[in-house]
Amino acid sequence: MSKLNVDQKTIMLLFSDKKSDFLIPDYQRPYAWEEGQCQTLWDDIFSFAFPDNNSDKFDSNEEYFLGSIVTFENDNNKKEVIDGQQRLTTLMLLLRAFYAKFGNMQDENSKSTRERIAQCLWKTNEFGQPNLNILKIDSEVATDNDKDEFLEILKTGIVNKDQKSNYAKNYRFFQEKIDNFLSEYPSYFAYLPARILGNCILLPIEAESQDTALRIFSTLNDRGLPLSDADIFKAQFYKHYSTKNQKDKFIEQWKELEEITGRIFKPLNGTPMDELFTRYMYFIRAKQGIKSSTTEALRKFYEKGKYSILKQDDTLSNLKILVDFWHDVYNQNQERFSTKILRKLFILNSAPNGMWTYFLSVYFLQNKNENNQLEENKLDEFLNKTIAFVWAFAFTNPGVNALRTPIYAEMVNIVTDKTVNFDEHKFDEHTLRTAMNNFEFKNGRPITRSMLTWWAFKDDQQEIPFLNTNFDIEHIFARKRQENDKSLSNTKLLEALGNKSLLEDKINIRASDYRFSDKIKYYKGFTTDKGQHKAGSIISELVNIADNKTDFTEQDIISRSEKIVSEFIEFLKEKKLIKEY
After folding, report:
1. How far is 576 from 581, CA to CA, in rounded Å?
2. Burial of 524 (0-12, 13-18, 19+ CB in 10 A)
3. Is 266 helix (H, G, I), strand (E, B) or coil?
């Protein structure tokens, strides 16, 4: 059983302990607290130390808990900080600002408090005298370009106006708060830092090893800025590459991964780096033959075998290869992908869920050649089949959870070099057609946008816009028109697929222009009375409708709906995804 040392301590007892020699290691994230967090900390501490703005109401037996700090003692006898870095750093800045303000104050309370703060900031000799050249904290955070500024602030207590780091900003914030406090409570100035030192409590948790400290951290509900899964993996990588004397190379590679993922991934949960590890996880799962629709949490998956996956020589390089691939996908790199492939990737970006990104990641890692490229015709077939299956499955088995079963099975087929066929999950034509005909294509449903994107961009002549182009979903027969003239006998046709199209959000059709004859100019483009040209839509089918129709009627909606559904089912037949009886 792992041994832990857990004993709550006041800031004074913890920081002034001769064994307290804190190190914020390479793999930690940069200091990120901003004024908002500092304001909260200051308000909480002040309310505790001066209840109702009254020093006399303070109860010296009361304690205020500030949180935990998880550390382990490394080979250099330093307390390596796994959790609590943000809080620890901020408290050091706060104490340094108080220390500087005391300056030459000669009253006994001020002198005593200043000496106690010094013992928290600097190492002391056997007589308790501080060595102002040796701090109680050091930072080696590899991705923090401002860490030297932090250490210099602690040493000198000086910041310049041109210093813009969070360290400098927060130090100036505390200086201002302390100035205001001194002017308002001059007779009680020493009481606030004294109560911070003597009555504010931290819970130091010292583990016997880094692994134990990481496990403890993962179970804590931290008030600060918790480490992401990728931060935990970074620690394991760092330890592994340090033993191979490749620490500096690893740090450089990691920073590059963070930079690229930060630009291309915008996950709803977790960090961009977590997203990269998730996409790689599905490849490893498939290689392990895992078809189960139950997916382990990211950290649980990688921590198996004492993070053995992260210690494999090809893991870091595979992550780099994978992120470069997705960088080219999201940047629509024409040197890497043909127009044919870019068209399919554009359609997939409107998928009803994100499962396709994991599926494509597995396909890429398994089928890339020595130049990390994919054979175009095979990739085109794979993308077409993915679009057809994922889109159709959203009608017959809605929800991403249901999609896991067929996709996970095909992932295993991919890594064993079998063709993706979805043999166990082909569609009954009648069932699918019925599901699509009965479906309410409301704008908020993801498959509505998915179908409209497929319909618009399957045309080889359709211009492919940038991925960040914003499209609204346009009702060709306007809802306001139905409100006014009630010409549709079946009002449900307003939400029919045949009545909808993608339309650039910048084409702002006025509410008063609800008649089809009024809309034509917006679809095609026009020149205003002031001579300003307003561009039309790039959606060629919409422009074609505007060119060839003077009205868009109930029958047009019905006919267009039937056409879209029929051509989609023919698409599935081409990809051999419809059952044959």
Report:
1. 13
2. middle
3. coil
Q: What is the average pLDDT across 136-155?
A: 86
367-371: Cβ within 8 A, 24+ apart: 367/414, 368/321, 368/325
Q: If DSSP codes are grouped into helix, strand and coil, which group holds residue 295?
A: coil
Mean pLDDT over 465-482 rounds to 95
Check pLDDT > 90 for residue 142. no
Mean pLDDT in residue range 221-237: 72
Integer Cα distance of 81 and 38 in angstroms = 20
CB of 70 within 8 A of CB of 145? no
Q: Is the pLDDT of residue 558 over 70?
A: yes
Q: Give the pLDDT confidence of 327-381 residue by residue, as tens digits.
A: 999 999 999 999 999 999 999 999 999 999 999 999 999 999 999 999 999 999 9
Q: Which two tokens stand for residue 95?
A: 């104490």
Cα 411 to Cα 539: distance, rounded to the nearest angstrom: 34
The pLDDT confidence band at residue 224, using thresholds 50, 70 and 90, is very low
Strands 500-504 and 525-527, sheet pairing: unpaired
Contact assessment for residue 319 and residue 257, using Cβ atoms and an 8 Å cutoff: yes
Per-residue burial over 426-445, b = 16 or more CB atoms within 10 Å of its CB, e = otherwise: bbeeeebbebbeebebeeeb
pLDDT at 162: 87
Q: How far is CA 64 from the centre of its chain?
A: 33
Give the Å distances, CA to CA, from 188 to 46, 97, 463, 533. 12, 17, 72, 69
Here the tokens at position 296 are: 């382990």
205 neighbors 71 (Cβ within 8 angstroms): yes
The first and second tokens of residue 384, run together, are 């077409």
| pLDDT, tens only, 44-55 | 999 999 999 999
Residue type, 288: Q
Q: Report the relative pairing of strands 122-124 and 500-504 from DSSP bridges.
A: unpaired
DSSP structure class, residue 289? T
pLDDT at 182 exceeding the cut of 70: yes
Measured CA to CA, the distance from residue 386 to residue 391 in angstroms comes to 8
**Residue 542: closest CA among 433, 457, 435:** 457
Cβ-proximal residues to 137 (8 Å cutoff; 6+ apart), any chain: 22, 23, 24, 88, 89, 92, 154
Question: Which has the closest alpha carbon to 217: 325, 81, 310?
Answer: 81
Q: How many CB atoms lie within 10 A of CB 110?
A: 18
pLDDT of 463 above 60: yes
